[in-house]
Amino acid sequence: MRGLHFLVILVTVTVVDLVIPYFVIGEIASLGASFLFWTALTFLVIVFAIIYTSQWGKSP
Amino acid sequence: MGEKPLKPLYVWIAMLGWTAAALLIAAAARKKMMPGASEFFIGGRRLRGFVSGMTYAATTYSAFMLVGLVGLTYRSGVGALGFEMTYLIFTVLLLVTFGPRFWIVGNWYGHITPPELLANRYQNHWVAVTAAAVSFFMLIPYASVQMMGMGFLVEGITDGRIPFMAGVFIMAALSGFSALWAGMRSVAWTDAFQAVTMMATSVIALLFTIYHFFGSPGGFTSAAAEKIPELLRFDWPPELFIGLTLPWAFFALTNPQVSQRMYIPESIVSLRRMVIYFSIFGFLYTIISTLFGLEAAIIFPGLDNPDKAMPHMLGRVPSLLGVIIFVGIFAAATSTLGSIVLTLGSLFARDIARNINPQISEAAERSMGRIVIVFLLAACIVFAWHQPGLITVISSMASGGLLVMAPAIVAAFFWSRATAAGALVSMIIGAAATAAMYLSGFYPLGWWPSVWGGGLTLILFITVSLMTTPPENAKQFIAAVEKELVAYRFRAATARPRPD
């Protein structure tokens, strides 16, 4: 991944990772709130990594 | 179900039986070992994707997960999941970005340790010596705490009938044999066995406890909403969340025992599999560990010491299941310890001894690495025996202290103005300041030493680099890596020769 792309993705994910629990759903007393949010966000990042790396090592 | 200690006989059988199985795997790995330092310390860069991914996972996830993280969740709720998932998100993105770079440069120049990469890029061997010294200072107490944790666990779950030091010695013996026998290959193979054990035992235990105590997953979620609503809310102060998360966020780059694993896959396809298998493992293991913490908070609230939540859980399940969970924790702790001592052995041989005497042979490097491993384990046993109060503080500063290497590592690939002087000054002063703050308990404005130390390190690194002259090869180094990254997208995944 190019450095700039890495930086943009990292900053974006970090902002989402902090802002949503702190300002939107943190007060909700349910497993469907912060617990589900962080689980889903991590899952999306892993899916992104699987898709992004699928080109690694492939011939043109 | 009432709480009862596990029978010592069962725990002995589990520890020794499982240790024997792991040693058989280590012995099998030795048959594949070839000569050379690279073979001993990084498996000759010939490890396949599954083994690479599992050794990465088993090295990363220690007994902290099923003891410390369970306790943290028990005490403070879903913030613990947020902290651990944030670590995983950063690690996945760092591996996708830096994994290929480490792998390519490692192949070109024959790097075995992460500090070698820094010495090469910054054209200064003192950068490697400093990075190795910081790693030793931070990781020895961390390794000792792994042993102490296992000693306490064994003692606790058997009501003191198996002594603390028995757990310490067995763990040291298994880690030591695994690392000494065939280096990275035996560590990686046993790590793979240990990782599978960790995952299988924790899944079995979670399913059992969910159905046994709550009837169904739905019963668990209802009980959680009803009995522990405060733990489902996220109310951590930002100082705590960021202070805890920041050093772990860059763990993949700053901890040599894991960053060294970016060298070991045999091909770029294996590297990809390592990233994916590790990510999936970490994702599942984190969810399982935090669910154990929430379960424990519902089943037996009010523990004075949250770190005892999992030992209490072991006393409330059938003996066989208790032993199964124990084996999973034992596996997590020994695999982390074995990897740390092997990596520190390689750092001493390659980054310290070789810089003192560049003529040293690869056979001598291997021997030196083995001697250092024995000394490290002996030192850890002595630490564990004395159980000094300070060691807990020192071990907690490990990840914060290692964070000081992050700017130099990131800049090695992305900032051609970065200099050796910037790397040296920032690592030495940053590590000293972070350690001093941890040891004195000085948390200015409530923010953790890792935040202050990390900020100071970054400022020093940029300022000193701008005031000094970068090495001549910096631009070419970065450009060559970027060019090769593009090339690998279209070519077969084999190691390529070093460029002129």
Approximate shape of chain A? elongated
Q: Tell me how many strands of chain B there are.
A: 0
Molecular shape of chain B: globular
Major pleated sheet of chain B: none
Q: Uncertain segments of chain A of ≥5 residues (pLDDT<50)?
A: none
Report what the structure shows:
The complex is a heterodimer of chains A (60) and B (500). Chain A has 60 residues and is mainly alpha-helical. Chain A is built from 2 helices and no strands. In chain A, helix 1 (3-25) runs antiparallel to helix 2 (31-53). The longest helix of chain A has 23 residues, at 3-25. The two termini of chain A are 18 Å apart. Chain B is mostly helical. Chain B has 22 helices and no strands. Chain B has helices spanning 8-30, 37-42, 49-60, 64-76, 79-109, 114-122, 125-157, 164-214, 217-227, 229-232, 238-249, 251-254, 256-259, 268-299, 309-314, 319-356, 362-386, 389-402, 406-414, 420-440, 449-467, 474-488. In chain B, helix 3 packs parallel to helix 14 (268-299) and helix 7 packs across helix 18 (389-402). Chain B is globular. The N and C termini of chain B lie far apart (69 Å).
Feature tags:
heterodimer, A: 60 residues, 2 helices, 77% helix, elongated, B: mainly alpha
Question: How would the blueprint of this fold be written?
Answer:
The complex is a heterodimer of chains A (60) and B (500).
Chain A: H1 3-25, H2 31-53
Chain B: H1 8-30, H2 37-42, H3 49-60, H4 64-76, H5 79-109, H6 114-122, H7 125-157, H8 164-214, H9 217-227, H10 229-232, H11 238-249, H12 251-254, H13 256-259, H14 268-299, H15 309-314, H16 319-356, H17 362-386, H18 389-402, H19 406-414, H20 420-440, H21 449-467, H22 474-488
Helix pairs in contact in B: 1-8, 1-16, 3-8, 3-14, 3-16, 4-5, 4-14, 5-11, 5-14, 5-22, 6-7, 7-8, 7-16, 7-17, 7-18, 7-20, 8-9, 8-14, 8-16, 8-17, 11-21, 16-17, 18-20, 18-21, 20-21
Gist of the model:
Chain A is mainly α and 60 residues long. Chain A has helices spanning 3-25, 31-53.
